[in-house]
Amino acid sequence: MSVTHSLLEYKDANGKVYEGDLYVPKTTGMRKLPGVIVYSAFRGITEFEKEKAQALAQVGYIALAADPFGKGIRPTDKMECFGIVRPLVSERIQNLKPVILAAVDAIKTVQCIDAEKLGAIGFCFGGLCVLDLARYNIGLKAVVSFHGTLKPLPDVPLDPIVGTAIQAHHGDADSHIPKEQVDEFHVEMRARNADFVFTSHAFAEHGFTEPEADSFGLPGVKYNKKAADRSWSSTLALFKEVF
C-alpha cells in the first residue's frame, strides 16, 4: 500500500511545540482508519522510528512518529540525548505526561482518523511512554513496549487498566532491565487486572529491535534479528485483533 508522508506540528498542554512525522495510507477514501503512535528510543525521531511508522501505514494504519524533544531539537550526540530524556524520566507525571499525551491529541486531529481505534508502540524510552499511557487509562485499544523500562509510576494507586491490551517484549539477556523490575511489572499488571502479554526473547539484549544498536557504543545494547522480527509480528497480530 502506498503511503504519504508529512510533518505534523502540535503543542502540549504547556504550549511547547513539537513536530512529528505522519504517515497515511493513500487509499483511505472516505473510510476512517485506526491510528498508531510510535514513541522513540532515547535518540528521538530517527530513521528507525520513521520506518516503523511507515510500515504501519503500509498495512492500513495512520501512524505518527511522535516527537519527544520539541520542534527543531534533534540531538545526535548520545550524551545530549540522555541529558534531555533524564528529566522526563525522573519526573514522569510532571514532565513526561504532557509530552506523551500531546502526541495522542495530535493524531486525533488527522483527517480520516478513527479516534476510537488508537494504539501506540514504543522502543526503550518509548516503551516506558506507552506503558504509562496504558496506566493513565486514556482509552487506547493496545500498546506495545519493546525493551522498555517497566517501572510503575511512583506514588500512584494501582487502578485497573481498562480496555487496553498490553504487549511487553523484553530481552531475556537485557542487563539494563533487572529481573526485579520484570517481577515487579508482573505484580503491577496483575494488581491492575490488566490484559497483558509479557514475552521474554531468548538471548536478546537491550535495544534488540534497533539494527544500528551495535554501533551505539553502549554496553549490553545489541540488535537481535530473530527477536526483532518475532516481536514485530506479534505487534501486527495484536493490532489486527483489537482494530
TrEMBL record:
Residue stretches making up the Dienelactone hydrolase domain:
23-242
Q: What InterPro entries does UniProt report for this protein, alphabetically?
A: AB_hydrolase_fold (IPR029058), Dienelactn_hydro (IPR002925), FrsA_esterase (IPR050261)
In terms of superkingdom, the source organism counts as Eukaryota
Q: Which GO terms describe its molecular function?
A: hydrolase activity
User: Which Pfam families does UniProt cross-reference here?
Assistant: DLH
Residues making up the signal peptide according to the UniProt record? none
Which protein, by its recorded name, is this?
Answer: Dienelactone hydrolase domain-containing protein
